């Protein structure tokens, strides 16, 4: 390997390293190629070169560099897209978390309301049972009073059927009840 080729390879490697160390260009700016001037006298510029290659860079290497620059630009675009997508997903996650908190609050309120309804239902059942017991007691009292009335009427009728003629019915009933 000749000294010229070593110098060229070292220079090309340094150029790539320098390009990798430079800050990235924004997507609004057109891609600017950074080229180092060639100080070697062995290579001169040809006037018929369409790509205007800088002296000292082999055309194949230049194509590789351009391919790498395109790949880097595509990766930057992909990175920006993924970052924007990540930001969007973060926003959607925050919205979903707020929605979940709202649902949890509704669920807790519904549980409290259910607990209150169960307590109310239990109280209503107790009142209903009390009313039924009270009604039953009232009915029993009415039945007892009715039996007492029937018994009194029965004794009165019995007493009046065997009463002596000419006595007052009140006196006869009183005598029958005693």
Largest sheet: none
Radius of gyration: 56 Å
- SSE run: HHH
* Shape field: rod-shaped
Q: How many β-strands, per DSSP? A: 0
* Helix-residue proportion: over 70%
Question: Low-confidence spans: pLDDT under 50, at least 5 residues?
Answer: 23-49
Task: Calculate the terminal CA-CA distance, rounded to whole Å.
Answer: 151 Å
Number of helical elements: 3
- Briefly note the structural class of the backbone: mainly alpha
Strand content: under 5%
The quaternary organization reads as: single chain
Question: What is the arithmetic mean of pLDDT?
Answer: 76
Quick summary:
This protein is mainly α and 178 residues long.
How would you describe this protein?
There is one protein chain. This protein is mostly helical and 178 residues long. It has a domain at 3-95. Helix content is 74%, strand content 0%. Helix 2 packs across helix 3 (169-177). The longest helix has 103 residues, at 59-161. It is rod-shaped, with a radius of gyration of 56 Å. Mean pLDDT is 76; it is low at 23-49. Residues 1-63 are annotated as: Disordered.
